[in-house]
């Protein structure tokens, strides 16, 4: 178990063909009513498409080119029959498209939903590994081929096969020998379809992957637009985007090339069959072994097979793309393990909770250097401990182990004496409130941002927390006060205002453990001092870990621990440490002297 997290992968191999197919089939089964309806309608369509040429044959043989000595029938019943069947087929075709495209759209939506909820569960390591663009692309671009394949290709493919089989049976029944001659084009068509499928498959996979690259690049430029513009890197970004776009273009062109070399052949080859029927069928007609009606039936059915044959080529291609996409999506859906939950979860004890780091060693990845080394740290229940240390010493890393954003490589973290791996993630995170170093606010009214941690809030408590965190100093002046929309579609708060909202949000969550990562780094020192005085009573009774670079925030703490290179090097009461030599006075001595 200690080495566990290193072996868990956030870069799973893509799924094999068979499991991917099975996965899609399971999804299809979920929509089986509409799916089977689509297939049944496809069967109707096929039968009607065969019945119409049969009726035409009857019309020719019984009403137009009647054999000598036979009574010539009226052509009208045949005409009416043909038009009626064609009309029914129109309705069938419409309903079939309607049913099957719904299946495709629903399966796409299901997969997007599955991916999205998986994204919400994935561990932080996943997001360290994958660029946002790739993550987005897999829930958008990658799903389109699946929708097209299931919504159109699958049933169209089945219908094409049914059509070929049904037409084959009719032809054999009418004249087996001529049917054999007309099958002349079949072997080369089969070869062509197989060759096409084999050639296009790797290119389709590449196209999907390259599209992800482009989304990733675009995302990087948009998210980092400030830096791009400030440093005049537009050209570089554009060129890099251009390279990626060129990659997609190249891959799509190669795909089009393969299609262009193979698909026209599928259109051409049936002409050979038609020629064979003209020759052999024509001789049979002259010899009196075949009626004109049967001759026309052969030609009509063969012409009717051109599209199904071409469709099979397209659908093979589409199927490859869909499978490639699904293989990527399924790999993420079942290849990435969410945070391991305990089989038999324990409960947290009542009352204030202690925090204990027991010989904790941590590295971000299997090959990365250790960031924390064999670290022991005890925080008593209700104690406020400040973690100080130079930048990069591991403060944020240490704090991120408390809500289990990461699991230690070795050692344990205990809350209230319980190993946090024995708590359900919900229990653990319900007990820990967090202010991150760069707080993120939701695109929502300020009020909702404040109460995000709690649904059952009491507005007086919210206001009290706002006073403690200094939100009351600016919130009433916002355009709509506490109802002002914050974020991308609303008012942008300053860094210091954002930090104070995050701080108030953590207080409102009213948890027994509070983890603050440099919560006041963006406010001026005067405001910081004022807020520390108000925060201290607001935090009373809670166990607090606060990482900070600033002496005025240290004033919040009962005790301070100095980290250097992931090891605690000094610990004590702030006042005592300032007087003594050591890491703490090295960090802050100048500030005090000034
Ligand atoms: N997601 C990550 N993946 C890999 N390495 C990381 C990651 N986050 C941080 N590190 C590395 O871990 C080390 C400690 O970083 P950490 O953010 O914990 O420092 P810090 O003490 O919080 O610094 P600061 O005072 O600047 O916030 C650094 O060397 C950093 O490069
Ligand atoms: Mg940090």
The helix fraction, in percent, is 55-70%
**Extended strand count:** 10
Q: Let me know the largest β-sheet.
A: 6 strands, mixed
Beta-strand share of residues: 5-15%
Strand order of the largest sheet: 6-7-8-3-9-10
CATH superfamily of the largest domain: ABC transporter type 1, transmembrane domain
Number of domains: 2
- Mean pLDDT across every amino acid position: 90
Classified by CATH, the class of the largest domain is: Mainly Alpha
Coarse structural class:
alpha/beta
User: Radius of gyration in whole Å, from Cα?
Assistant: 36 Å
Task: Indicate the CATH architecture of the largest domain.
Answer: Up-down Bundle
**Backbone shape:** elongated
Total count of helical runs of at least 4 residues: 21
What is the third-level CATH name, the topology of the largest domain? ABC transporter transmembrane region fold
- Give unreliable regions as ranges: 1-7
Distance between the termini: 50 Å
Small molecules held by this entry = adenosine-5'-triphosphate, magnesium ion
How would you characterize the overall build of this protein?
This protein starts with a helix and ends with a helix. It has 21 helices and ten strands. The protein folds into two domains: 15-335, ABC transporter type 1, transmembrane domain (ABC transporter transmembrane region fold); 355-593, Rossmann fold (3-Layer(aba) Sandwich), CATH 3.40.50. The chain has 594 residues and is of the alpha/beta class. The radius of gyration is 36 Å and the shape is elongated. It has a six-stranded mixed sheet with strand order 6-7-8-3-9-10. Strands 2-1-4-5 form a four-stranded antiparallel sheet, with no helix packed on it. 62% of the residues lie in helices and 10% in strands. The chain binds adenosine-5'-triphosphate and magnesium ion (MG). Adenosine-5'-triphosphate is lined by residues 128, 364, 368, 371, 389, 391-397, 437, 549. Adenosine-5'-triphosphate binds next to helix 13.
């Amino acid at each position: 178990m200690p080495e566990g997290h290193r072996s868990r992968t956030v870069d799973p191999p893509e799924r094999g063909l068979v499991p991917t197919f099975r996965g899609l089939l399971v999804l299809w089964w979920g929509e089986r009513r509409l799916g089977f309806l689509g297939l049944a309608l496809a069967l109707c369509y096929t039968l009607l498409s065969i019945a119409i040429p049969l009726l035409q044959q009857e019309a020719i043989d019984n009403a137009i080119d009647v054999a000598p000595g036979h009574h010539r029938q009226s052509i009208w019943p045949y005409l009416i029959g043909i038009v009626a069947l064609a009309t029914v087929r129109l309705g069938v075709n419409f309903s079939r498209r309607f049913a099957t495209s719904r299946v495709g759209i629903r399966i796409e939506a299901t997969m997007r939903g599955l991916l999205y909820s998986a994204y919400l569960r994935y561990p932080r390591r996943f997001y360290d590994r994958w660029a946002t663009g790739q993550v987005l692309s897999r829930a958008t671009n990658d799903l389109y081929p699946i929708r097209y394949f299931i919504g159109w290709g699958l049933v169209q493919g089945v219908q094409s096969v049914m059509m070929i089989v049904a037409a084959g049976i009719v032809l054999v029944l009418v004249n087996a020998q001529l049917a054999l001659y007309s099958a002349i084009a079949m072997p080369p068509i089969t070869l062509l379809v197989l060759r096409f499928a084999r050639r296009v498959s790797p290119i389709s996979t590449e196209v999907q992957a390259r599209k992800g690259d482009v989304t990733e690049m675009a995302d990087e430029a948009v998210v980092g637009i400030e830096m791009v513009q400030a440093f005049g890197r537009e050209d570089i970004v554009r060129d890099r985007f251009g390279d990626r776009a060129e990659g997609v273009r190249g891959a799509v062109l190669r795909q089009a090339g393969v299609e262009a070399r193979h698909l026209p052949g599928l259109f051409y080859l049936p002409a050979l069959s038609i020629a064979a029927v003209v020759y052999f069928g024509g001789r049979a007609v002259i010899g009196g072994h075949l009626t004109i009606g049967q001759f026309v039936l052969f030609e009509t059915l063969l012409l009717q097979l051109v599209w199904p044959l071409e469709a099979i080529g397209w659908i093979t291609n589409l199927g490859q793309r869909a499978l490639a996409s699904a293989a990527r999506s399924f790999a993420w859906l079942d290849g990435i393990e969410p945070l391991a939950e305990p089989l038999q979860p324990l409960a947290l004890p009542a009352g204030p909770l202690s925090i204990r780091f027991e010989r904790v060693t941590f590295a971000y990845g299997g090959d990365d250097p250790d960031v924390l080394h064999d670290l022991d740290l005890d925080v008593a229940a209700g104690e406020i401990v400040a973690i100080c240390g130079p930048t990069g010493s591991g403060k944020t890393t240490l704090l991120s182990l408390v809500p289990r954003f990461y699991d230690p490589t070795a050692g344990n973290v205990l809350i209230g004496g319980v190993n946090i791996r024995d708590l359900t993630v919900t229990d653990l995170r319900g007990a820990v409130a967090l202010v991150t170093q760069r707080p993120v606010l939701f695109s929502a009214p300020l009020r909702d941002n404040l109460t995000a941690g709690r649904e059952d809030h009491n507005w007086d408590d919210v206001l009290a927390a706002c006073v403690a965190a200094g939100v009351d100093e600016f919130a009433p002046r916002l355009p709509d006060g506490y109802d002002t929309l914050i974020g991308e579609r609303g008012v942008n708060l300053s860094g210091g205002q954002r930090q104070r909202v995050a701080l108030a949000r953590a207080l409102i969550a009213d948890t027994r453990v509070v983890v603050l990562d440099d919560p006041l780094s963006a406010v001026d020192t005067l405001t910081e001092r004022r807020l520390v005085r108000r925060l201290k009573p607001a935090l009373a009774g809670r166990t607090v870990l606060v990482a900070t670079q600033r002496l005025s925030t240290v004033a919040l703490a009962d005790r301070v621990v100095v980290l250097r290179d992931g090891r605690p090097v000094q610990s004590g009461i702030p006042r005592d440490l300032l007087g003594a030599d050591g890491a703490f006075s090295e960090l802050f001595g100048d500030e005090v002297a000034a």
